[in-house]
Amino acid sequence: MIRVFCCCLLLLAPAWLLAAPTAPVALSTEQRAWLGEHPRLRVGVVLQAPHAQYVRRQQQLSGLSVELMDTLAQSLAVELSWHSFTDQPALEAALREGRIDLAPGLTQTPAALRLWLFSDPYLRVPHLLVGERQGTGAVELEQLGAGDAVAVRMPSAIADYLQGNYFNLNLRGQASDRQALQALLAQDVRYAVIDQAQLSRLTQESEFARVAVVGDVGLPQLLRIGTRRDWPQLAVIIDRALHELPPQQLERLQQRWLSARTPGLGQSAGFWRNLSVLLAALLLLSGALLVVLRRQRTRLERGLLEARQALALREVAEEALRLAQFSIDHSTVGILWVNWDSRVRYANRAVEQMLGHAAGALVDRPLQEIEPGLGMDRWLGLWRRVRAQEEGALNFESSCLRADGSLLPVDVSLSFLRFREAEYLVVYLTDVTERRRVRAALEESEARLKGIAGNVPGLVFRLERPLPGAPVDFAYISEGSEQLVGYPAAQIMAADFGIRSLVHPDDRARYHATQDAAIEAASDWQWQGRILTRDGRERWADIKASARHLGDEHVVWDGVVWDISDNKAIELALGESRAQLRELSAHLESVREEEKARIAREVHDELGQVLTVLKLETSMCELAFGNLDPGLGERLESMKKLIANLFQLVRDVATALRPPILDAGIGSAIEWQGRRFEARTQIPCLVLVPEQLPALSDAKAIGLFRVLQEALTNVMRHAQAHTVEIRLEVDAGQLCLSISDDGQGFDAGAVRAQSFGLVGMRERVLMLGGSLQIDSQAGEGTTLSVRIAVEQEEHVS
C-alpha cells in the first residue's frame, strides 16, 4: 500500500523535481588541459525563435540552443560569452573575423564544411505537412494532385527537395512560414509545409489555432554544433559532451521548445492538490479495508491448511503402500525371496509370468527346479559369499527352466536381506533374451562393417582418446591402407608409425597443427595435403574425421583418408587457368585504357583543331558578310553556338575516356572526382588525401580511379546518402582507398552475386594485385575499402 502511494506521488511531482543535475563529461587529460587554457568560449547564435530569442524583460537570451549550450557549459565547467546575429551570413562573417568560437543550431552543407567543423546531429527537426483541423487520416504527398496547392517558404532547402522529388505537387512560394500559414487559413492553398520548430512557435498564437499536422514530408533538419576549423580539439570535446548528454534532457528540450503548448486543466495547482488529497483518502480507506479482510482470510486459511495437511499425510502413506506393492508385483525384474534351504519364500508376479507359472505356484519350491545348475552345494556356497559381504551383490549369467521346459537366458543378481528374525537371499532375475540377440546382431554388424571398410577405396580409421591429455591411439585401420599407401594396417597402427609417417615433409607442420587443434578441442578434424606411398610416389589425400563423445570425457574420431590426386590435379590446372584468364583480362583492360587515352588525345587534338578552324572561318564569314543579310547573321550566330556546344561535347568525351587530371597524380584525380560528384549530386563529399603519396604506375592509378568512379555511381543511384567521405592513405606498404556513405546500406552477401558492378570492381582490384572489402548493413551506410601494394618506398608530392 505504501509503495502504491509513493508511485502516485511520483506521478504527481513536477518534472523539475525529478531532473538530475548534469554530470561532468569524462575527458582526457589533454582535453582538460585545453579547456583550462580556454575557460571562456564565445558562442554565436542567429536570433530565430524558438532556437534563440532575446527577452527584453529579462535582458537575456533564451531558447532551445541557448538552454542546450548552458547545459553543455555546465558539464564542461566553462563560461560562455554570447553574441547574437540577425542572419546566417553575419554569423559566418564573425567566424571569419575570429570573433566567435562555436555556434549551435547549424545545418551541414557543402559550403559550410569549408568554414565549420560540425558535430554529430543532436536534434532532428522534421518538416511537417499541415492543414486545417478536420479528419484524422494522414496525407501522403504522392496522393496530392494539381488541385491541392501547397504553400512553402521559397527559397529554402525543403522547397528544392519537394521540387526535385515530388513532380505532382502544385507548390506556391511564400516569403515566410507565417505567410504560408496565413495562405492556408485564407484557403488560398490547401496545405502548407513548415518545420516543427516554427510550427510550435506560431501555433501558440490564437490566429493559427485551427491548423493541425496531417503528414510528415520526410526531410528532417539535422541540427549540429559548428566549431572553428582551427580548433579541432574543441570539436572533439563538443562531440564527447553531446554523446554523454542524457537522451531524457534532449527529449525535455524538444518537448519544451518544439511542441505547441496550450493551457489545460493539468496546469492548475489547485487541481493537482485536490486530486492528491482525494487519492490519499482513497488509499487510506482501501488500506484499512484490506487489513481487516486480510486478518479474516488468514484465520480461515490457517484452519483449512491444518485440515488439508492431515488428510494429505494419510493419503501419502496409503498411496506409498499401494505403489510399493504395485511396483513389486508388476516390476519387469523377477524377484524371489529364498530361504537358506534354497526354497522360495516369495515370488512376485513378474517372475511367475517370466517363467510361465500360475500365481503362487513357485512358493515353497526348491530353487534347483528353476535353475537346474544351482544345486544345494553351490547354493550354500553362494549363501556364504553373499552373507559375508551383506551390503554387496553377486551377479552372473545363467539360464532358467520355464514351465514348458524351454530355457530362458537371464542375468542373476543376489543380495542378502535380514528381515525381523529371518535371513533371506533376494534373487533378481532379468530377461536378457533381447540383449543377447542385440549382442549377436552387433557382432554381425561389426563384422559386416569391417568387410565394407576393407573394400572402401581409401583408408578407414578410428582414433581414441580415453581421457584429456592421454595419448591418442589408433583403435582401427581398414585393410584398404595397403591398396592406398602400400603399408598393411598393423604397421600403420604401430605407436611409432601412424598416418603422420606417411605425410610429405613439407606438409607435416600443417598436418600436426590441424590434428592437435582437433584433439585439443575434441572437434571434427579435416586436413588436405600430400602423402608418400611405400614405393615413394606422391599422392594428394583428404582426411575427414568426425568426433564423438562416449561419456566420461572419452572421445573417438571416425574418419576416412581419400585419394584425391586426380581431383587435385584438376584443381591445380583450373587455378592456373584462372590465373591466365585474370592476366589476359588485365592485359585487355590495360590495352583498353591505352586505347581510351589515345582516342581521348585524338578527339581533343584533332577535333579541337577542326572546331577551332571552323569557328574562325565562321567568325570571318560573319565579319565579311554578316551586314549584307540579317538572316545570314542570325544563322552564323547559331552556327557559332553549335560549334561552342561541340567544343564542350569534345571535352566531355575526352574527359570520360581519360580525365586529364590523372596526369597530375592519383591524389589530384580523387579530389577532382569528389568535387565533381558533389557538384552533380549536391551531396557533401569530404575528401582526405595526404600531401605526400608514393609513386604509382599508370595502370594502378587508372584502375583505382575507375573503382572510385563506379563506387560513387553506386552511391548516387542506390545509397540515398546525406554525406560521403573519401579517404586515401598509406598503411603498411599499401595504398588504401575507402569510400564511406551514411545511406540506407544493403545486405552485402545477398547483393554481391547479382551485382555486375561489384563483381567488376572486385576483378579490377584483383588484376592490380590488391584486395577489396565491402562492409554494409541495412540502415547503417556502406564502406568500400581497396588496398593496393605500393611499388616503391620513394614518396613524391
Automatic annotation (TrEMBL):
InterPro entries xref list: HATPase_C_sf (IPR036890), HATPase_dom (IPR003594), His_kinase_dom (IPR005467), PAC (IPR001610), PAS (IPR000014), PAS-assoc_C (IPR000700), PAS-like_dom_sf (IPR035965), PAS_4 (IPR013656)
Pfam families on file: HATPase_c, HisKA_3, PAS_3, PAS_4, SBP_bac_3
Signal sequence annotation: 1-19
Domain of life: Bacteria
Domain Histidine kinase, residue spans: 598-792
Swiss-Prot/TrEMBL keywords: Kinase, Membrane, Signal, Transferase, Transmembrane, Transmembrane helix, Two-component regulatory system
Residue stretches making up the PAS domain: 445-522
GO molecular function, one term: phosphorelay sensor kinase activity
One GO CC term on file: membrane
Matching PROSITE patterns: HIS_KIN (PS50109), PAC (PS50113), PAS (PS50112)
Limits of the PAC domain: 394-444
TM ranges: 271-293
UniProt protein name: Transporter substrate-binding domain-containing protein
